[in-house]
Amino acid sequence: MTTIIDGKQLAQQIRAEIATAVKTLTEAGQIPPGLAVVIVGDNKASRVYVNSKKKACEETGIYSREIALGAQTTQAELLETIRQLNQDPQIHGILVQLPLPSHLNEFEALQSVVPHKDVDGFNAVNVGYLSLGVDTFVPCTPLGVMEMLKRYNIAIEGKNALVIGRSNIVGKPMAALLTKASATVTVAHSRTRELPALIGNADILVAGIGKPEFVKGEWVKPGSVVIDVGINSVDDPSAPRGYRLVGDVEYKSAAERAAYITPVPGGVGPMTIAMLLANTLKARQIPVSTAGHVALTAEGHKSHLKLA
C-alpha cells in the first residue's frame, strides 16, 4: 500500500513547534527571531510568495519586515539595503526574493548577505560548508525533503538515490544532503542518457527538473520513495481556473508502484516555507563567531528543528 507523504500536515506540525520555541524565547524576555524579505519590482508571483512568508511569520511569532524596492532600483541601492540588514540586530535572517529584475546582479546580491543571516543557504560560504559535510544553512526546499524523510522514518543509509535536476537551489544541495546521509547518490539532468533505467534502480527518487509529468510511472522502481519537487501549470479546460498544477512525476501511475510518494500540490511545497521559518529560528539561536560566521560544527545530518 502506498503512503502519501502529507507535506501540508507536516508543515503545520513544524510551524506549531516553531511557535512554541519562539514563545519560550519571548517569555524569557528575549527578542524573537527576525526575518527580512527584500523584494524588488512588482513580479506577481513573488508578491504571492512574500505574502505567504509574512503570514507564516505572523502565525509563529517571528518578527517580519518587508523591504519593497522599486523596479528601477540600482545594484548599489540593493546592496546598501542588504548591508543595513546585515548590521540590524533585530534581523536574524535575510531573504532576497527571486527573481530580481534583469538589470540587477543576482549572484552579487545573494553573496552580500552575511553567512550567519543567509537563511536561504545561497551564500558561497554556506554552500562550501554543505559540500564539506558541516552543519550549516541549507536551501529550504531540499532541507524540507530531508525533514520529510526523517519524520516518515524513511531509511536513507545505503540506499540508491537519484536526483533529477542540478540547480543550485534544489538539485546540488539535495545531492549533498543525501550523500551526507550515506545514500549512494546519482545526479541526472536534461542530457543524461538512459534515464528510465536509472529511475528504475532508484530506491529514493527526487525529481526537480521542471517538466510536467516528465517521469513516467512505469519507470519508477516498485517499493521506492518518490519525492516530487516540481510544480507546473498545465492547461485544462475542465479545471475551475482553466489549468491544473502537476509535478514532474506522473503521479497516478507512479503511486501504484511507489511505497511513498509526495503529491503536487500539498507535498514538498508547504515544507519550503516551514524550513525558512526553521532556518530563521536557527539563525536566532546559534552563536556567531568573532569573524562574523556561524559557529558550526562538523556533525552528521540532523534536523534543524532543535525545538524539544
Helix/strand order, N-terminal first: EHEHEHEHHHEHEHEEEEHEH
Strand order of the largest sheet: 1-11-8-7-5-6
Strand content: 15-25%
User: What is the CATH class of the largest domain?
Assistant: Alpha Beta
CATH superfamily of the largest domain: NAD(P)-binding Rossmann-like Domain
- Global Rg: 19 Å
Structural commentary:
The chain has 2 domains: 31-119, 3-Layer(aba) Sandwich (Rossmann fold); 140-270, NAD(P)-binding Rossmann-like Domain (Rossmann fold), CATH 3.40.50. Strand 5 (160-164), helix 7 (171-180) and strand 6 (184-188) form a beta-alpha-beta unit. It is α/β, with parallel strands linked by helices and 308 residues long. The strands form 3 sheets. It has a 6-stranded parallel beta sheet with strand order 1-11-8-7-5-6. A 3-stranded parallel beta sheet has the order 3-2-4, with helices on both faces. The protein is globular, with a radius of gyration of 19 Å. It starts with a strand and ends in a 23-residue tail after the last helix. 37% of the residues lie in helices and 16% in strands.
Q: Which descriptors would you attach to this protein?
A:
Rossmann fold; six-stranded parallel β-sheet; alpha/beta; 10 helices; disordered C terminus; three-stranded parallel β-sheet; 2 domains; 11 strands; 16% strand; 308 residues
Secondary structure: elements and pairs:
Layout: E1 3-4, H1 7-27, E2 34-40, H2 44-60, E3 63-69, H3 75-86, E4 93-96, H4 106-111, H5 124-131, H6 140-151, E5 160-164, H7 171-180, E6 184-188, H8 195-200, E7 204-207, E8 225-228, E9 232-235, E10 243-246, H9 251-255, E11 260-261, H10 268-285
Helix pairs in contact: 1-10, 2-10, 6-7, 6-10
